[in-house]
Amino acid sequence: MQRPLSSSSWLRKFSQKYVNGGSQTQDTLPSDETDSKKEKSDVLTEVMSATSFGSTTRTLKHRHVQLIGIGGTIGTALFVQIGSGLTKGGPASLFLAFSIWSTFILAINNCLSEMVTWIPVSSPFIRFADRFVDPALGFCAGVNFFIFETALIPFEIIAFNVVLQFWTDKIPVVAVIVFMLVAYSLLNVFAVKYYGESEFWLALGKVILAVGLIIFTFITMVGGNPQHDVYGFRFWDPSKVEGAPFAEYIKTGSLGRFLGFLACLIQASFTIAGPDYVAMAAGEAHHPRRTMPRAFKSVFYRLTTFFVIGSFCIGTVVSYNDPHLLNAISNAHPGAGASPYVIAMQRLGIPVLPHIVNALILTAVFSAGNSYVFCASRTLYGLALEGKMPKILQTCTSNGVPIYCVAIPLVISLLAFLQVSNNAAVVLQWFVNLVTASQLLNYAIISFTYIRFHKALKAQGISRDTLPHKSFWQPFSAYYALAGTLTMAFVGGYTVFLPGRWDVPSFIFSYAMIGVVPVLFLFWKIKNKTEWQPLETMSFFDHERKEVDQYEGDLPTKPRSRRCCVALNF
């Protein structure tokens, strides 16, 4: 490809074709005097990096995308709330449930990686549902994911205040909520690169915490603690802990042990995530065809390290029936006080470490909320691009930030003020129940969308070997993920149907989205008379793919960086 960079007229054409096609303009292109090779290369890199497709800019680097995936995945659920699953199922059920559910998330990752790498657009899986299935499914998928992400923002704001109370309850709740909302606004409004950079360092703190707690487990279990207690697998041994390693829940005997495992599986379905957050960064990723496959590949390592090994460690450091753990959960102890790791540290007489853990959990909570603001705003933006939300939501700042799409979830996050007049634990549970089914339905939609995508490729004679990335075990992975996520969506609130356990709020929050999503689908389908996309004529975002091809083709070739933070696979 020829690139006559010395021509200012070429640069003007380039600006008109690729930059001014969006809502923003470029006023800083070089003059005719720019003639050195280094300056030409720098100019091209800068212009290409900020190329706007749909007005957002491709400024998120590989390391940003990697850590954004972690930012939305790891929060209090992995370090604190996981203890609730341990008390219900025991260490073996917890480990088995998290291991099994990780395979479903890996299957969803396979579906997304293939589609998103070939078509790296904003809000990809929402727009894929529109083009590959039915515009009505794209609408309900977008609204469902937006509700899911937006509901998690006040959840993390409330959780931040709870974690803070580990040290003091003197800080007014209102002040904490205002601080969080202002901080999220600053990080998400001014520029994508600031969001990406802040999320990189915040998520790096989560990696340090997760890996540090795993190391803590393996050191202390062999006697590396102040009491020199070689506890090993004591809490897995039924001769030392009654009922271990498979605890009974609700019922006794084999049925009780199965219900304990099921409780852990429900816990895992809320806790484990990842590929959807990576996918949301596709429309703003620099060099997406190279960046996205590497980011999706790293999901496997995150699942294995953080969730599978992490669940094993939780059941190893503390007994499932530890009175301190049961008391901390029932009385909603603040912050790290309810963490199985902190309870283990206190049992072993380790003084300072609980405060370090709480500080890192605090950054983990902040980072998770930051990711939810980003994903919620980009979901709304994707709906606007597809004509399913008011056109004004397509408006972006000169830095490529969809300003109104960022503002709306932040305004909805004012629901966090519910904590002022209600118990924090109660409010947190409201949000958890609401979003769990929503997340599972989102994964089911992604899986079904891939099935249609796979069939359309075959119907149109397009070989998957020609795609920039081909995932493995397809279409089995898609069917496997679809069956698992749909099943768990209906199983999640099963306890309300057991004798003597009926609870109206629990039923509503557990199954509300299962009723809302079909209603949204029918509403859009009837209102707009949409049609099921035929496999033989289905389009694959041809215009958008050509833009990305041109963008990547004009990027200067650079030697791949070997810095450890860039190559980080977590």
> What are the secondary-structure elements, in order, as H or E?
HHEEHHHHHHHHHHHHHHHHH
Q: In which range does the helix fraction lie?
A: 55-70%
- Biggest beta-sheet profile: 2 strands, antiparallel
**CATH fold topology:** Amino acid/polyamine transporter I
Gyration radius from CA atoms, angstroms: 24 Å
Low-confidence stretches: 1-54, 560-570
CATH architecture: Up-down Bundle
Q: Number of helix segments?
A: 19
Task: Please report the first level of CATH classification, the CATH class.
Answer: Mainly Alpha
Name the CATH superfamily classification: Amino acid/polyamine transporter I
Distance between the termini: 36 Å
Taken as a percent bin, the fraction of beta residues is under 5%
The overall pLDDT, averaged over residues, is 80
> How many individual domains?
1
Give the structural class. mainly alpha
Major sheet: arrangement of strands: 1-2
Number of strands: 2
Give a description of the structure.
This protein is mainly α. The protein has one domain (57-528): Amino acid/polyamine transporter I (Up-down Bundle). Helices cover 64% and strands 1% of the residues. The protein has 19 helices and 2 strands. It has helices at residues 8-19, 37-49, 62-71, 76-118, 124-132, 135-164, 173-189, 192-220, 253-271, 275-280, 288-317, 323-330, 340-347, 353-385, 403-412, 424-459, 476-491, 504-528, 542-553, and strands spanning 52-53, 56-57. Strands 1-2 form a two-stranded antiparallel sheet. It is globular, with a radius of gyration of 24 Å. The chain starts with 7 loop residues before the first helix and ends in a 17-residue tail after the last helix. The model is unreliable at 1-54 and 560-570 (pLDDT under 50).
